[in-house]
């Protein structure tokens, strides 16, 4: 034992030479900078243990560092050192039983050929290291893998490299999804074979110990007892009703050991198990959602971009309704970008999300997507509420020009909405809830009271906004229902338009709010998998419908659209027709306004309908 010698800075080459009876060597808590020469120990013991620990100045495990250790079973406990990398062929010539590399906080790299030339290890422990990847060579013999608190290990090597793995203790639940898929595939294949001879197995076996299936040099699979040094079941069909070499293929047995007391396979186990927030599935879960989300996000992006382009390039004066519509279109455009980002990542990681989950959910991509969706949804709801109140105000005070809402009033109102929406979207980035909880990057973390209050605040404000919108439209409907102002057919038209506006708002807000509020109180009524249906089918309803209901279906927008197209050399006839109709309506309105000292009923009706049309 060489312990607690901080002044020991170097061990001469050959210091450990010809020690045939050495069973255990420990070098811990020293000041050694260079890896000691261990190649000349030549211990004859079958089982040898080497312990290197707390040597914080030792930064590298060099090539052929353990080459002289030819023991039948070698255990290397190399923990709590200053290792930063392990070189190629570092374990060359060894027969590793256990390789313990835990608590090497600075260990970031193991060369891809570090285990080349070695047999084993059966147990690999890389917990609490900074490793970003495992070597793809030399993992075939590992039966136990411990990688807890290895937060930098976000991707696993190809699963076929872990051909002997029986137990995995990992950091991220998503990695266990990979082994679950492998386990299910192998289990279904092997259990179907076991059903054919389970009765024969149960009647024949007599609680053997240390038995395992091996594949010999002739590639015949048979049951071998290492302890008894004999085949328990002959492969001759005359002595046994089953020829194991014919029944089993080595590839079918990957990931399984056997408990012959029960004639059942011992299945690969992996922890931590995926939880309710991160089930073993792709980002969108269902195949039909993968198709729908592309249609919906393209519709939202194209519709809102068109509205923004037409409104911004219009040569008409920027009115309050136009200004508010620009804000609404921008918010809904951001929602389309969120859906596009989710759809793109889902397409890229389909079938292998488990290997990308950590990079996605902890990276800037998911944070950006989460910011977009919360900012867009809150700004959209806020702007919809302002638009509705503006319409109600315009109709209620139609004849009182001094109370008309001006652009100088609308700008600070919307500035407040932008500040509020940005603040709400930034809070999860500052630790109030989190966008990293689920693959769809919504703030579903309610572990703390502050996070729970944050979610409830958003939901309550959305419900209040919906109530305000409904109340304003009911008042508008009552106002325009006056038969002295609007004809019956106009009344029906207005009522239908209001019903559609309220229905789309309700369709978007009600299901989301209902299930989200129950989840915020930690009584979830729907799984994350099923919530993705709400995400695609209900959540973006307003973003798709708003550009059509508030802009594209209105006469004012169609006029601006055809005027813009005429500038590009298209639809000149339609554009000229809209110019003539607009000029005619303007001239008629001026004549009616000057024929009487006060506003007529017809002019009042025209103002009411124009407010709704906007």
Automatic annotation (TrEMBL):
One Pfam family for this entry, by name?
Answer: 7tm_1
Name this polypeptide is given: Lutropin-choriogonadotropic hormone receptor
The record, for PROSITE patterns, names: G_PROTEIN_RECEP_F1_1, G_PROTEIN_RECEP_F1_2
Q: Which gene encodes it?
A: Lhcgr
Membrane topology term: Multi-pass membrane protein
Transmembrane ranges, per UniProt, are: 291-312, 324-345, 369-389, 410-433, 453-478, 499-521, 533-553
Q: What does this protein do?
A: Receptor for lutropin-choriogonadotropic hormone. The activity of this receptor is mediated by G proteins which activate adenylate cyclase.
- Keyword Magnesium among record annotations: no
């Amino acid at each position: 034992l060489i312990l607690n010698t901080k002044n020991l800075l170097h061990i001469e080459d050959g210091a450990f030479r010809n020690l045939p009876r050495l069973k255990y060597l420990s070098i811990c808590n020293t000041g050694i900078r260079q890896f000691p020469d261990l190649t000349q120990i030549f211990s004859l013991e079958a089982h040898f243990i080497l312990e290197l620990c707390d040597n914080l100045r030792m930064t590298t495990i060099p090539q052929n560092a353990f080459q002289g250790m030819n023991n039948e079973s070698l255990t290397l406990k190399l923990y709590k050192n200053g290792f930063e990398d392990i070189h190629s062929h570092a374990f060359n010539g060894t027969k590793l039983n256990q390789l313990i590399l835990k608590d090497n906080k600075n260990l970031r790299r193991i060369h891809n050929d570090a285990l080349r030339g070695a047999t084993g290890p059966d147990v690999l422990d890389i917990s609490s290291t900074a490793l970003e990847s495992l070597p793809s060579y030399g993992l075939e013999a590992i039966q136990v893998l411990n990688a807890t608190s290895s937060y930098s290990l976000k991707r696993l090597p190809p699963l076929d490299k872990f051909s002997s793995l029986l137990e995995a203790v990992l950091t991220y639940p998503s990695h266990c999804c990979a082994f679950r898929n492998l386990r299910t595939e192998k289990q279904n294949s092997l259990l179907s074979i076991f059903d054919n001879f389970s009765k024969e197995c149960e009647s024949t076996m007599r609680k053997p110990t240390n038995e395992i299936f091996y594949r010999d040099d002739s590639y015949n699979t048979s049951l071998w007892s290492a302890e008894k040094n004999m085949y328990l079941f002959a492969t001759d069909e005359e002595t046994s009703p089953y020829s194991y070499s014919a029944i089993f293929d080595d590839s079918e047995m990957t990931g399984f050991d056997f408990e012959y007391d029960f004639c059942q396979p011992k299945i690969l186990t992996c922890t931590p198990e995926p939880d309710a927030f991160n089930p073993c599935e792709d980002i969108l879960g269902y195949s039909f959602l993968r198709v729908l989300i592309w249609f919906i996000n393209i519709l939202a992006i194209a519709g809102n971009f068109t509205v923004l382009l037409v409104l911004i390039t219009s040569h008409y004066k920027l009115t309050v309704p136009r200004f508010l519509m620009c804000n609404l279109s921008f918010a809904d455009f951001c929602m389309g970008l969120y859906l596009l980002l989710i759809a793109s990542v889902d397409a890229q990681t389909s079938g292998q999300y488990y290997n990308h989950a950590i990079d996605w959910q902890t990276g800037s991509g998911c944070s950006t997507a989460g910011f977009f969706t919360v900012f867009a949804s809150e700004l959209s709801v806020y702007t919809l509420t302002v638009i509705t109140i503006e319409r109600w105000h315009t109709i209620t005070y139609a004849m009182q020009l001094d109370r008309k809402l001006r652009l100088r009033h609308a700008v600070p109102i919307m500035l407040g909405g932008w500040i509020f929406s940005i603040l709400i979207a930034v809070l999860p980035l500052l630790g109030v809830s989190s966008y990293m909880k689920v693959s769809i990057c919504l703030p579903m973390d309610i572990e703390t009271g502050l996070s729970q209050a944050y979610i409830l605040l958003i939901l309550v404000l959305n419900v209040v906004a919906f109530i305000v919108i409904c109340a304003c439209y009911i008042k508008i409907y009552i106002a325009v229902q006056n038969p002295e102002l609007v004809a019956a057919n106009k009344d029906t038209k207005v009522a239908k338009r209001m019903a559609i506006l309220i229905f789309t708002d309700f369709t978007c807000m009600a299901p989301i709010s209902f299930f989200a509020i129950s989840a915020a109180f930690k009584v979830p009524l729907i799984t994350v998998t099923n919530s993705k249906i709400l995400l695609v089918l209900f959540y973006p309803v307003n973003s798709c419908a708003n550009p059509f209901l508030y802009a594209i279906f209105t006469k004012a927008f169609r006029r601006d659209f055809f005027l813009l197209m005429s500038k590009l050399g298209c639809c000149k006839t339609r554009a000229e027709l809209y110019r003539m109709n607009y000029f005619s309506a303007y001239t008629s309105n001026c004549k009616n306004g000057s024929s009487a000292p006060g506003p007529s009923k017809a002019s009042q009706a025209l103002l009411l309908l124009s407010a709704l049309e906007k």
